[in-house]
Design brief:
Elements: H1 2-12, H2 15-21, H3 25-80, H4 84-159, H5 162-193, H6 196-223
Length: 224
């Protein structure tokens, strides 16, 4: 029974607390399953040995009971043949085997009770390992979800940092300033490259030409 006492400590551990302290919960949980499976295999070997001992005691008990029955039959045969001396000898031998059979029965019953408990414990251990495997998947999923949430929160915290947006605003203002300066320089270059008065008259002539064209069109329409 000692191996089950050792294994039980695995299941008494606070798994959530272990996960919180582990650098890699998935790797830790997989290792736990491997360790429990190894302990289960060791327990299975010990239980098998106990079952073998129980069967051996049962065979010995059956043999002693068979010998008891055989010497009982021989005593009856001696009595039938009127040989009391032989019958007494047979009964004494029968008594010896009967005593051995009773001792084997006590040992076998105790071994069988212990074996039955070991079988029950082994089944419970197997069930706990299967339960741990199922929980492992859930715990790993929870861990990954928590890690994803942590990553998202870290990203959001960075986005909420006003210094980032302040930098963008400063860069935007700087770009505006550069654009305005470029436009001013272009306008100045345009002014310096030609006669501004001549340019004004050219614009005026363009406007007069457009008006004269519209006036001609209007006269043509009215004459019709």
């Amino acid at each position: 029974m000692g191996i089950f006492n050792r294994i039980s400590t695995v299941f008494k551990s606070n798994i959530n607390d272990m996960i919180s302290k582990a650098e890699d919960p998935e790797k830790m949980l997989n290792q736990m399953i491997i360790d429990m499976s190894e302990q289960y295999n060791k327990a299975k070997v010990e239980v098998a040995a106990a079952i073998a001992d129980e069967k051996k005691l049962k065979r010995s008990l059956d043999e002693e009971e068979a010998k008891t029955a055989e010497w009982t039959r021989k005593a009856e045969l001696a009595v039938t043949n009127g040989d009391d001396k032989l019958a007494i000898a047979a009964l004494n031998r029968k008594k010896e085997y009967e005593g051995l059979a009773n001792q084997y029965r006590v040992q076998w019953e105790a071994q069988k009770a212990a074996t039955d408990k070991l079988k029950t414990s082994l089944r419970e251990l197997s069930n706990k390992i299967e339960e741990a495997k199922r929980k492992k998947g859930l715990l790993i999923a929870r861990t990954k979800r928590a890690e994803a949430q942590k990553s998202i929160q870290k990203t959001m915290a960075g986005l909420n940092d006003n210094s980032v947006f302040d930098t963008f605003n400063r860069m935007s203002e700087k770009v505006d300033s550069i654009e305005n300066q470029a436009m001013a320089e272009a306008e100045l270059n345009e002014i310096m490259s030609g006669d501004d008065l001549e340019k004004q008259f050219q614009e005026l002539e363009k406007e007069d030409s457009a008006v004269m064209d519209e006036l001609a069109a209007l006269k043509t329409k009215l004459n019709k």
